Amino acid sequence: MAFTIGSAGGHGVVRAEGELDVGNAPALREAVGTALDQHATLVIDLTAVTFMDSVTLGVLIGAYNRTRETGGGLAVACTDDRVRRVFRITGLDKVFALYDTVEAAAAAL
Questions:
Q1: Each residue of 18-37: b (16+ CB within 10 Å) or e?
Q2: What dihedral do alpha carbons 8, 14, 15, 18 form, nearest 10°?
Q3: 81 Cβ partners below 8 Å, 6+ apart?
Q4: What's residue 40's pLDDT?
Q5: pLDDT tens, residue by residue, 28-76
Q6: In degrees, to the nearest 5, what angle opens at C-alpha 70 toward C-alphas 98 and 78?
Q7: Residue 49: burial class (beta carbons within 10 Å; 0-12, 13-18, 19+)
Q8: With a threshold of 0.85, does the pTM exceed it?
Q9: What pLDDT is attached to residue 2?
Q10: For position 13, what pLDDT does the model report?
Q11: At what angle are helices 81-90 and 54-69 packed, to 10 degrees?
Q12: Are strands 73-77 and 97-99 parallel, antiparallel or unpaired?
């Protein structure tokens, strides 16, 4: 899986597609780190993700902590009910702001 790094509204954007799991978590971590080296605020675009495991959540928590330490922010764009369910089950829907689109997430930052 390849991750796309871009920007929207002056914020970094990391876009993922397909399934996120232990096998591609290191690549996601690297993409997120690269984006955060360039932007203090970040949108994680999961709108094309169909599965996400707990290792991926660890990567997102690491990104969230990094943005908080540097005074930045992080928002997640996610539409798939199965992926949103992972956030709800773990209680991380209270930590991460979840939006339906990258544009809405970027506007909220």
A1: eebeeebbeebbebbeebbe
A2: -160
A3: none
A4: 96
A5: 999 999 999 999 999 999 999 999 999 999 999 999 999 999 999 999 9
A6: 15
A7: buried
A8: yes
A9: 81
A10: 98
A11: 70
A12: parallel
